[in-house]
């Protein structure tokens, strides 16, 4: 690029940015550091290209708007990953995961399955023995009950929804997941929900409810009302495995399902 052409380009960029700054709101948001950097740009005597290692990524990166900064907290983390994320990418990462000791006892990881654009996502606790053998979520006795709820009660197909768990590996003897296991697995779940962005999340049981809502209230306190997860409507109900042991509470679960259907249809 010749010196005159370079000078013209710098001048045009500065003109565009000055017009942008007068907009309400501006179309392009720049950090103070970036704006100062552009103002300091001059046409060098020699038009030598800089070496890649001499360019500071930090010096030209733009800061997010203040409202985006405020949304990123420990309780509500901003979900970020290198390059475009996808459910297939997450599933591959889960398959290779060795972050906690559960990798040594699993037969298969269970990432989740269903419609990647689902309006409804069911989140359970962890895979059981049947799920561990097949690598699919909710395929045992509890899974059959969930399938009946979806197909017979909601008149939908499992292919219409997305089904996953907080943990992606089976805890030995189906014990309750411990905090360390949840800590390592939760980011996979958050990324899945961030990609799908359903209209409703149905948390099945205490582990799913406590992980998503960040509280330790009982299911009886949490169910029966709407909650919010990162702007997504969330409903808590009993885990199908609990309902197999306590069939009388199926009536309460049906009440929760009807509320979800009414919300989706609205």
Largest sheet: 6 strands, mixed
How many structural domains are formed by the residues? 2
Structural class: alpha/beta
Shape: globular
Look up the CATH topology of the largest domain: Uracil-DNA Glycosylase, subunit E
Give a quick rundown of the structure.
With 266 residues, the chain is of the alpha/beta class. It has twelve helices and six strands.
Textual characterization of the structure:
The chain is of the alpha/beta class. It has helices at residues 3-21, 32-39, 57-60, 66-71, 87-95, 129-134, 141-153, 179-196, 206-213, 219-222, 240-245, 250-265, and strands at residues 113-114, 120-124, 162-165, 200-204, 226-229, 232-237. The protein folds into two domains: 3-63, no CATH class; 87-265, Uracil-DNA Glycosylase, subunit E, CATH 3.40.470. It contains twelve helices and six strands. A hairpin with a 2-residue loop joins strand 5 and strand 6. The radius of gyration is 25 Å and the shape is globular.
